């Protein structure tokens, strides 16, 4: 090859590499404008407004659709971040992409600065490790990633793939309720169903309860996943609530309905001198009637009929 051709070849390789890097940077920057990122940050803004996220309290994850994952894959920078090994494996999550909040990030800061506070992780081909492929600005994913991933696996199979959103918050009335109620799913569900008519419609299967545990690890993740085989939401005693759903709106709505019912239940008890022996409530027959008339698959084990 002549000297001219060698120079020409080197120049075009450098230019092409530069164009590839630029295209990848543009594609990476565009991810933050994708509709699923907007849905994610809108939920964060709404949760903050509700007062559910003191300090870095709470976290959120979203399982991308195959089409959304393709657009992210197309913008992957090379070399990608290293794989981080999980201390469990979830083969059903192999190859999935999740948009997640960062460890220690404040939910209130997410809408204005998503790039520093949220990111996308990819799970490897056997569900035993993840790597960051977008965002997070050097942060780790939320410390509750084990719970998010295990619960995604369980809820995805329980809903034939429909569930995409897992949301954790620290709503005060649900947490207060865990100080005074026996920590079992039947007791919590009945108190909430009877506090407000819409509850049995919003969560006909009931809510699960996990006793107090150290957060952020595999044990609380496994206990939560076990409950979420049956329930779309699970209460963490003295800590908060995990809610799941197919969309951001439905997941936020479930969190809000449970918290509002807990608020009403607590106020009614206070007005009643602390007792939960109320003058008026929804009877078990009434709850069954709602389920029958609306064709709900309500959890009959939680009704005394
Ligand atoms: P992260 O900041 O790691 O998401 O933790 C917040 C939290 O609520 C832990 O349960
Ligand atoms: Zn928490």
Structural class: alpha+beta
Return residue spans where pLDDT drops below 50 for at least 5 consecutive residues: none
* Average pLDDT figure: 94
Biggest β-sheet strands, sense, barrel: 9 strands, mixed
CATH class of the largest domain: Alpha Beta
**How many structural domains are formed by the residues?**
2
Number of strands: 9
* Through-space gap between termini: 90 Å
Q: H/E element string? A: HHEHEEHEEHEHHHEHEEHH
Strand adjacency order, main sheet: 2-5-4-3-1-6-9-8-7
Q: Summarize the amount of helix as a percent range.
A: 40-55%
Radius of gyration: 23 Å
Label the CATH architecture of the largest domain. 3-Layer(aba) Sandwich
CATH fold-type name of the largest domain: L-fuculose-1-phosphate Aldolase
Judging from the principal axes of the Cα atoms, what is the shape? elongated
Give the number of helices: 11
Quick structural overview:
The protein is of the alpha+beta class and 305 residues long. It has helices spanning 3-31, 35-49, 66-74, 114-117, 145-158, 172-180, 185-195, 199-202, 218-227, 248-271, 284-294, and strands spanning 59-63, 84-85, 97-101, 118-123, 129-135, 165-169, 208-210, 233-236, 240-245.
